[in-house]
Amino acid sequence: MVGMPYPNIKSPELQEKVAYLDKNMPQVGGRSPGKALIENLCMKAVNQSIGRAIRHRGDYACIILLDCRYARPATLAKLPDWIKTSAQVQASFGPAFASIRKFFMEKKRKNGE
After folding, report:
1. What is the pLDDT of residue 51?
2. Angstrom distance (rounded) from CA 46 to CA 30
3. What is the pLDDT, as a whole number, of residue 57?
4. How many C-beta atoms lie closer than 10 Å to residue 16's C-beta?
5. Contacts 24+ apart (CB under 8 A), 47-56
6. Which pLDDT does position 113 carry in this prediction?
7. N or C, which terminus of the chain has less Cβ within 10 Å?
8. How far apart are CA 1 and CA 51, in angstroms?
9. Cα(101)–Cα(29) distance, rounded to whole angstroms?
10. Long-range CB contacts (< 8 A, 24+ apart) of 105-112?
11. Is 9 helix (H, G, I), strand (E, B) or coil?
12. Burial 70-87 (b: 16+ CB within 10 A, else e)
């Protein structure tokens, strides 16, 4: 996934929800509830995309989240636990490619292909 799939903040419906939350809910950790809603909608889309790649327990896929914002601890915390435990942050293409190659080589060896 390239980038982060933030919702359209110009949407009148989303603007109303954000305004309502910001007016009626307290800030949590210095963040407005409206901003938290937008971030949660974004991460919901990320998690749905991951779920489309991995459909059952024995299935596997390499999911590449291509944006430096995914390396933020707060963003990683919003991924499912079963993804967080195997998530790796790579700063450049070379180490990322090596990690992907290693992943598929291990799966191939494990499955006897």
Report:
1. 87
2. 24
3. 80
4. 10
5. 47/78, 47/79, 47/80, 49/1, 49/5, 50/79, 50/80, 50/83
6. 63
7. C
8. 13
9. 39
10. 107/60
11. coil
12. beeeebeebbeeebeeee
Instruction: With beta carbons less than 8 A apart as the criterion, state whether 52 and 23 touch.
Output: no
What are the tens digits of pLDDT across the range 9-30?
999 999 999 999 999 999 988 8
pLDDT of the residue at 59: 85
* Unique residue bearing structure tokens 């307290």: 26
CB-based burial, 97-108: b 16+ in 10 Å, e otherwise:
eeeeeeeeeeee
pTM (2 d.p.) = 0.85
Query: What's the half-sphere exposure (Cβ side, CA atoms, 13 Å) at 77?
Result: 5
The answer to whether 38 and 5 have CB atoms below 8 angstroms apart is no
Please enumerate in sequence order all residues whose Cβ is within 8 A of that of 76, keeping only pairs 6 or more positions apart, or say none. 70, 84, 87
pLDDT tens-digit map of 55-93: 888 888 999 999 999 999 999 999 989 888 889 999 999
